[in-house]
Amino acid sequence: MPRALSKIRFLFIALCFVLLAGTALVAAQAKVEISVLLDPTTLGLEYIDWLENEWIPQFERDNPDIKVSTTRLSGNRLDTVAVAVAAGLPWDIVPAAHTLPMIEGVGLGWYLPLNAYIEQWDDAEYMIPTVWEHSTWNGEILALPHSLPPRFIAYNKRLFRESGLDPERPPTSWEELIAVARLLTVTTEDTLVRRGYHMPTGSNGDMAGFFELFGKNAGGRMLTEDYRRPRFTEPWGLETLNFMIELHQVTNPVGYAHNLTTSANASIYRGEAAMAMATGGAVPINVASTYYEVVDLGVFLPRRSPDHRPVSTSSINSMAIMRFTKHPDEAWRVLAHLYSREALMEFSKIRGQVVPRSDLFADVAAEVPEIMVLYELLDYVVPRPKWPSGAGYTYTTGLGEPVRLAVLGEMPPEAALEEARRRVQLLLDDFWQQ
User: Fold this and answer.
1) Containing H/E element for 32?
2) H or E segment at 203?
3) If you count DSSP H runs as helices and E runs as strands, how many of each does the chain have, helices first?
């Protein structure tokens, strides 16, 4: 072979090696980008700052093949994600709070089942077992439970003590709760000065939540297991609604004017109510300010009778991997990092909320003891239904509005439950037909 051709051949082969090496180097340096939608409503701005400035950069240092980009949700959660899905640009990881596992995960099919990842996840053994119910459908885990605000009754121990009640022995039955609420309600000649128990009636959503919790006290279930039929016209439903009506009546006597707050939490701290329903994340123990009195705050769970187990209901804040992700394995690595022991402990410290990890109890007791009272409720937490929507109704308008009208005396209780059943049946039928 002529020397010139041999030299050209050598140069050609060398160039090929250089190109191949360069391509391999670019491939090695390429990063998979995982996009995450963060909800300030559930996570809080301070915690999101910590994630973006500390925890995610640490993940990227430990995982140089992945870049994490975050977006802070503003506006309606469902509409925001729906627009992104329609545009073909959805996030890889999204928040999935309360009703979304049913609406988005089941109804719209947006969520990737996580069973295969969770089976290999070492931290799964520390998750509180009851929380899985909220994000599971037909055996598929559609979202990873992140935090939960348990419902409980907060009470002012000082007012109990001043009224001759044992502040360490809160009511243990519906009948006792009504009796204590009546005793602690204070009126003057024509003014309601203090409610023994404050049950806000201005919000359909709150009323649905109260009915769910007290209904669980009575052994009720809102919907059938297949989410096809409402069950609150069963006997427990009328018993629950009649109890709520009486509780409202004894603490809001007719003919008395008042200028009391409508907020359940504020009513406790101002001394305008002796007891009120509250949720986790709203427990600043012994708060004092210019108009809040210092409160020796107690917490208890309602129960139908001393023979019944106490019950707390809770919405579950979760996160899900979108089914449309091109990089599910990398998305799971990011999600698992967000759910690590260290990340969720930081969340509890910053937000003062409960996370469903049993291995955090000792650390919480040591570092944020003021919220340990919430962690002690976890054994009694039952997830609220992951309500779907349809036919123009949500759980707030379908169930909450008729319940609210009955409590206010604007609709007979039997008629209210029948109207709620009708609305929710339309909701369910429409949801499953879509």
Assistant:
1) strand 32-38
2) none
3) 20, 14
pLDDT one-digit tens code per residue, 131-151:
898 899 999 999 999 998 889
Q: Tokens at residue 324, please? A: 């449309």
How large is the C-alpha radius of gyration of the chain?
A: 27
* Model confidence pLDDT, tens digit, residues 213-250: 999 999 999 999 999 999 999 999 999 999 999 999 99
Amino acid in position 116: A
DSSP strand pairing (93-95 vs 317-321): antiparallel
Q: Using pLDDT thresholds of 50, 70 and 90, give the confidence band for residue 14.
A: very low
Backbone angles phi, psi at 411, to 5 degrees: -155, 135
Q: Which amino acid is at 314?
A: S
| 0.70 exceeded by pTM | yes
Residue 295 has pLDDT above 80, yes or no: no
CA quadruple 15, 16, 19, 25: dihedral sign: negative
Query: Any idea where the domains of the chain sit in the sequence?
Result: 30-142+317-355, 151-314+388-433
Q: Is the pLDDT of residue 280 over 70?
A: no
Whether 85 and 110 have beta carbons less than 8 Å apart is answered as yes
Give the number of other CB atoms < 10 A from CB of residue 352.
Answer: 18
- 10 Å CB burial of residue 6 (0-12, 13-18, 19+) is exposed
CATH 3.40.190.10 fits 30-142+317-355, yes or no: yes
Q: How far apart are the first and last CA of the chain?
A: 74
List the beta bridge partners of residue 221. Answer: none
Q: Would you say residue 393 has pLDDT above 50? A: yes
CATH architecture of 151-314+388-433: 3-Layer(aba) Sandwich (3.40)
Same fold, 30-142+317-355 and 151-314+388-433: yes
Residue 271's region, left for phi above 0, alpha for psi from -120 to 50, else beta, is: left
- Under DSSP, the state recorded for 39 is -
Q: Does residue 281 have a pLDDT over 70?
A: no
Which amino acid belongs to residue 215? G
